[in-house]
């Protein structure tokens, strides 16, 4: 799977930034060294830097590796739960050229930044290397930078709409909503029920975290707008983008979302849904297994369904998420790290992990696997969502880009600026960040 390299452009939504390759104090890549593949050597202990292992299944997979590789033990290093904090700790580790992290579990939009700064080792493909031919094509592009593979897709993601089947049934609503207006109408019917008292209508992440960038991208894309155009230039100051942002702002202002929405992160939202406090919840696939647990941690087990996210005139445009494994350029035992990635990316391992956690796999055939479909009936919906999903802007200075989006949108959500002012200011700020040299 190869793409023609474009000077400082990454197909579609990738931003072309000032300094074209140097970010967060990183060196320029004008000499092309960042893209040069080098043999991955060294065997011995390795570490995996990752976000929270909420299911405990990652550790089980690592334990199985360790039993089979007594001289090449892997150790999980759990980073903070919030993606912004994970990214910052990984950057701090890289800028000091530390070998503390061997493998990095990267959000899909971090590849460009980490590869351009030469913080990652290029991954070999083909015989003896990694095989991406069996993966969903949309996931493969998230691990590439300038046509070369720097991160192996391990899990994918696309935003889904979780909804309370029991409450919709009581309200006489036969199908989950496919439009924003249908969602509000269904909510009004549910809230008129005794069972609907105190239940919030809708929740998506609007706290000042990475989740806000995701929610913003989904709302704008669903309304037919974009944050960045195919040429890498910002396109956020448009009527379509305003319609998307207006949807989020009005949902907060009109009380469609809970008062706590502006402070909840993804895990806070999950707990809110599992406590039975919200009717419609935009969330990632991982929530499915957790919300269906019958150990007392979820009050909605067996009483919810999953559908595509709605848009203004029909199903919306989900955001493409997921996580990829990359090898730190400063790791000691890169050969072991590569073998570990092969082990974790294997189809059998992905299937076992998905069955245990409801995380979306990247191996395409698993979406038609009988065992998988039997447990997760929503897999065809998820596959379609991933194939049609839109990406957040991927950028060499991703921190600056996502901070600009979060700042502008959060001010609009809090009523400090109008949506028009927020988008005008964001257009200008992104324009400065995307000025090519």
From TrEMBL:
It comes from the Bacteria. Residues 1-21 form the signal peptide. The keyword Signal applies. InterPro entries: Bact_solute-bd_prot1, SBP. Gene3D superfamilies: Periplasmic binding protein-like II. Keywords: Signal, Transport. Residues 24-55 are annotated as: Disordered. Belongs to the bacterial solute-binding protein 1 family. This is ABC transporter substrate-binding protein.
């Amino acid at each position: 799977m190869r793409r023609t390299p474009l000077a400082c452009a990454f197909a579609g939504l990738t931003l072309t930034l000032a300094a074209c390759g140097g970010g967060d104090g990183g060196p320029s890549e004008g000499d092309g060294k960042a893209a040069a593949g080098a043999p991955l050597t060294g065997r011995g202990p390795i570490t995996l830097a990752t976000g929270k292992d909420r299911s405990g299944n990652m550790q089980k997979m690592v334990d199985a590796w360790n039993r089979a590789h007594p001289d090449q033990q892997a150790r999980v290093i759990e980073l903070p739960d919030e993606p912004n904090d994970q990214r910052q700790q990984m950057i701090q580790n890289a800028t000091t050229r530390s070998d503390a992290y061997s493998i990095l579990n990267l959000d899909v939009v971090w590849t460009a930044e980490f590869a351009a700064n030469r913080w990652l080792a290029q991954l070999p493909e083909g015989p003896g290397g990694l095989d991406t031919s069996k993966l969903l094509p949309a996931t493969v592009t998230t691990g590439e930078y300038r046509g070369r593979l720097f991160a192996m897709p391990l899990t994918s993601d696309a935003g889904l709409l979780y909804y309370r089947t029991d409450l919709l049934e009581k309200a006489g609503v036969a199908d989950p909503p496919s439009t924003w207006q249908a969602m509000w109408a269904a909510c009004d019917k549910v809230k008129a029920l005794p069972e609907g008292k105190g239940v919030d209508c809708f929740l998506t992440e609007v706290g000042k975290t990475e989740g806000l960038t995701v929610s913003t991208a989904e709302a704008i894309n669903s309304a037919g707008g974009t944050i960045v155009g195919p040429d890498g230039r910002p396109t956020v100051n448009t009527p379509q983008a305003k319609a998307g942002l207006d949807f989020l702002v009005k949902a907060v202002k009109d009380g469609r979302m809970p008062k706590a929405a502006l402070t909840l992160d993804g895990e806070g939202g999950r707990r809110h849904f599992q406590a039975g406090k919200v009717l419609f919840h935009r969330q990632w696939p991982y929530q499915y297994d957790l919300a269906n647990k019958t150990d007392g941690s979820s009050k909605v087990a067996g009483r919810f369904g999953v559908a595509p996210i709605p848009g203004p005139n029909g199903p919306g445009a989900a955001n493409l998420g997921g996580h990829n494994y990359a090898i730190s350029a400063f790791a000691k035992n890169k050969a072991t790290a590569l073998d570990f990635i092969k082990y974790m990316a294997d189809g059998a391992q992905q299937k076992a992990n998905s069955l245990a956690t409801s995380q979306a796999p990247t191996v395409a055939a698993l979406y038609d696997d009988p065992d998988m479909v039997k447990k997760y009936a929503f897999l065809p919906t998820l596959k379609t969502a991933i194939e049609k999903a839109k990406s957040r802007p991927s950028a060499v200075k991703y921190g600056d880009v996502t901070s600009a989006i979060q700042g502008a949108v959060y001010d609009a959500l809090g009523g400090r600026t109008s949506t028009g002012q927020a988008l005008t200011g964001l257009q200008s700020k992104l324009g400065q960040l995307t000025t090519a040299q």
